[in-house]
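Hello again, I could really use a second opinion on something today. I've been staring at a protein lately and its backbone has me curious. Please have a think about how the structure follows from the sequence. I owe you a coffee for this, so here goes:
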Amino acid sequence: MNSIIYLVGLVVIVLFVLSFLGLR
């Protein structure tokens, strides 16, 4: 379970960074 939560959190962070870079 912990690994799944960690993977989901990592994906969210990556998407946030990509969206942030896309806006600039």
